[in-house]
Amino acid sequence: MTIATATPATKPVRGRIRRVAWPLLLWLLVLPGAVWALLRLGGWEQGLMVQLFAFTPYVAAWSVVPVIAALATRRRLAGAVAAVTLAVFAMVTLPRALADGDRGPQGGVALHVMTSNLLFGNADAAEIVRLVRANAISVLALQEFSPRAQTRLAEAGLGDLLPYSSLGPEYGAGGSGLYSRFPITNPGVRHNNGGFKQAYGTIQPPGAGAVVVESAHPLAPYSVEVLDVWRNDLMEEPGVDPNGLPRILLGDFNSTLDHAPLRDLIDSGYRDAADADGAGLTGTWGPYDGDPLPPVTIDHVLVDERLGVGPVSVHDVPGSDHRAILAEVRVPAA
């Protein structure tokens, strides 16, 4: 009988392989997140990264894994890079889950607003009206607002609750609507370069100052070929004019707070209501019509910093791939 045994040279070879393989595997864990964090921090989003950036909160949660792996293997350099990566992700994402200490002026008149993307007008009109009624909504912004949706909302009784409107219905995804409990002055519908309409108007709640409200819907960055149009649509969204009326810009922005163009718009003088309320990581689009996607936050209520922000809630709407956002806005007394 012959028994094969490892030669003395075999064990050193295996040891060298392990010494090379484990650090390599660790760096393969560390580097993708580190590069992602660097791109996110610098606002360097090009090509496919524009779409991927919407999922940054999930990468942030995963970035804990390389830190644990580096600690377990006692690799100091990799551990330091992983720890810095985790710190960057925490800095840019965690504040969204924490309510801001400064939500703007909290006096004046409470204005309850709601935004909902209707998915080609197919969202459940009765549920939209129920949310309006149950939450005393005074301003409703709608995207993908079709003639059929307009008819169904009227049949469900929306006009009894919000009798004033500025409407731009359109078949497909391009339509926009704005309904109000209060009279709308200077109504209009703006056309984005990406093909979507944006209904707007000025309202004045009793006892409060006038506010300009607009239903926002820039183009989605659905392919590399349309990224310039997506950026341009966001750049052309109305910024805050400190010498003009306060603004509320609400709708489907097709962007998260991890996209630099949206952050630039907010920096013009807005607050993101969900971010201010600690609900900034609540998903509004993704799996809600059956698609195998993790939730991302692309719908927003942007509130002029001269106005205050109250509680925010997010609600499912049957028939839509988006969830509705409801927010309380505090409008200073006139």
TrEMBL record:
The keyword Membrane belongs to this UniProt entry's keyword annotation: yes
GO molecular function: endonuclease activity; exonuclease activity
Domain Endonuclease/exonuclease/phosphatase: 114-322
InterPro entries: Endo/exonu/phosph_ase_sf, Endo/exonuclease/phosphatase
Lineage: superkingdom: Bacteria
Key words of the record: Endonuclease, Exonuclease, Hydrolase, Membrane, Nuclease, Transmembrane, Transmembrane helix
Pfam family, one: Exo_endo_phos
Ranges annotated as spanning the membrane: 20-39, 51-71, 78-98
Name of this chain's protein: Endonuclease/exonuclease/phosphatase family metal-dependent hydrolase
Organism field: Actinoplanes digitatis
